[in-house]
């Protein structure tokens, strides 16, 4: 169960090598989190992440999880919940894709959508049902500011996040009053290994800053968190910019 400060004692990360997820885990372990499950494809990076978190004092386990195999999600994630209650699930997997290549390769574009949206829908529903059965716990979903409006430079990725964003809002409404809490996180450009080498956008942030925002959102039981917070106002304006003008913006 969460302590008086809203810190989960147990944490399940879907996308166990995510820089944002690991920054969040480090922060929560420093507070009171004691058990961490890292779900992801078997790799040395996943094992290294587990070793790192164990060194911080958390009992850490790894479990094989593939976003592109929704048929396996119920069985795989069910094993985690069978081991005991999970106070927080952080859905942190996703791929950026390569916009220029993906426009020419529909199969590659579909893989982005299947990972970021279809895989997320499947795994989130499995976890949501388990949290509801527990009667407590938070599902935290990493969306993106890219979900707010299609941009020429990343509309394939952005569309997949837009679907995830809408789904998460609806799931939060569906679980309202059950004891399970859903929180949507919309970061801007985050400096991670996934974005390395890409031009930075305005309001760029760090995994550590996102982790701080997630922790604060948990304490407040927020439903939506923007990182940085100023993006809420920026996007409120950009959503209403006429399309002909929006096309000419350097976005």
Automatic annotation (TrEMBL):
InterPro entries according to UniProt: NAD(P)-bd_dom_sf, Sc_DH/Rdtase_CS, SDR_fam
Enzyme class: oxidoreductase
GO molecular function, one term: oxidoreductase activity
Keywords: Oxidoreductase
Keyword presence, Oxidoreductase: yes
Transit peptide found in the keyword field: no
A Pfam family matched in the record: adh_short
Organism domain of life: Bacteria
Enzyme Commission designation: 1.1.1.333
PANTHER family linked to this entry: 5-KETO-D-GLUCONATE 5-REDUCTASE (PTHR43669), DECAPRENYLPHOSPHORYL-2-KETO-BETA-D-ERYTHRO-PENTOSE REDUCTASE (PTHR43669:SF6)
Family: Belongs to the short-chain dehydrogenases/reductases (SDR) family.
Entry protein name: Decaprenylphospho-beta-D-erythro-pentofuranosid-2-ulose 2-reductase
Native source species: Streptomyces gottesmaniae
Lineage: Bacteria, Bacillati, Actinomycetota, Actinomycetes, Kitasatosporales
